[in-house]
Amino acid sequence: MSKTFSDLIAKVGECGTKKVAVAVAQDSAVLEAVKAAKERKIADAILVGDEAKIKEIAAELNIDLSDFEIINVEDVTEAALTAVKLVHDGKADMYMKGLIDTKGFLKSVLDKEVGLRTGKPLSHVCVFDVEGIDHLLFLTDVAFIPYPTLEDKVNIIHNTLEITKACGIENPKVAPLAAVEVVNPKMPVTVEAAELVQMNKDGKIPGCIVDGPLSLDLAIDPEAAKHKGATDRAIQGDADVLLFPDIHAGNLVYKAMVHTANVVNGNVLTGTKAPVILTSRSDSMEVKVNSLALGAIIAESIKNAN
Fold first, then answer.
1. Which residues have C-beta within 8 Å of that of residue 66, sequence separation ≥ 6?
2. What is the pTM of this model?
3. Across all residues in the chain, what is the average pLDDT?
4. What is the distance between the terminal CA atoms of the chain, rounded to a whole angstrom?
5. Domains of the chain, first to last
6. Which of 65, 71, 98, 130 is such that its CA lies 20 to 30 A from the CA of 197?
7. 256 touches 58 (CB < 8 A)
């Protein structure tokens, strides 16, 4: 079982080097990330985009492109479709966003002919290694579904369980978060959390333990759980998965952790045929490399499941 991001990186060594197709690769942060990923034997890259601009940026960064395959496609939309088709056709193991807006990138992911549709809804998972917490935290959804319905939350959990399994975590504890830890009919989020718990008990959400509603402190801090007398809860400060009530709560917590705490993290879009690396432009190069490592582990898990 992986308890730290270092454990996850070690798992990459068991997978063999994967290949990532980058859409619109003329982006300095992405080129630095794929260079680092190659040096660390996490992934090779196929760079799809404006070849002249890719080479110009690489020269400025002193990046040797001789070991990278470059496919020259100057049009942004066509570059994305060319890159995602490589993954669709099995010529690459994962798909990464370069210098293209998120809307255009997702349009290529969902393309009916060459995209990575599975028929399942998409959601986003962030994997965090946080100083002071002795296991990985999986945050979802902080970037994709704005206001998840009860059905969306069920799908988000199913998608996230595929990621926890790939990371070697069986039967994870899932905490549907709210401002309070009791059901309040005036707070629909708490009502839905209780419904998720019942669905879990009824076998409709297998492969995990769901306990909610839970406040964030009860979900991640054993001392807080003890002080609040939550000794009868299935989760007592030891949640693996934090399920957020909406994108605002998730995104605020994500950015607060990234910018104020000592963390290591990687992010991936799920519900697709292959891992999709969708990071924020404000994410560091290390986050992008970690996301590629996470994608490599998931790609290996998908391969072994087929």
1. none
2. 0.93
3. 93
4. 22
5. 5-117+272-305 (3.40.50.10950), 123-260 (3.40.718.10)
6. 130
7. no
pLDDT category at 1 given cuts 50, 70, 90 is low
Provide CB contacts within 8 A for 19, sequence distance 6+. Answer: 43, 44, 45, 46, 91, 92, 93, 94
Q: For residues 182 and 211, what is the distance between their CA atoms, to the nearest angstrom? A: 11
Label each residue of the chain as H, E or C. CCCCHHHHHHHHHHHCCEEEEEECCCCHHHHHHHHHHHHCCCEEEEEEECHHHHHHHHHHCCCCCCCCEEEECCCHHHHHHHHHHHHHCCCCCEEEECCCCHHHHHHHHCCCCCCCCCCCCCEEEEEEEECCCCCCEEEECCCCCCCCCHHHHHHHHHHHHHHHHHCCCCCCEEEEECCCCCCCCCCHHHHHHHHHHHHHHCCCCCCCEECCCECHHHHHCHHHHHHCCCCCCCCCCCCCEEECCCHHHHHHHHHHHHHHCCEEEEEEEECCCCCEECCCCCCCHHHHHHHHHHHHHHHHHHHHHC
pLDDT band at residue 232 using 50, 70 and 90 as cut-offs: confident
The 10s digit of each residue's pLDDT in 133-174 is 999 999 999 988 999 999 999 999 999 999 999 999 989 999
Which pLDDT does position 280 carry in this prediction?
75
Contact 299, 18 (CB under 8 A): yes
The encoded tokens of residue 19 equal 């290949």
pLDDT at 12 over 90: no
Q: Express each pLDDT in 197-221 by its tens digit.
A: 999 999 999 999 999 999 999 999 9
Cα separation of 8 and 29, whole Å? 22
Burial class (CB in 10 A: 0-12, 13-18, 19+), 201: exposed
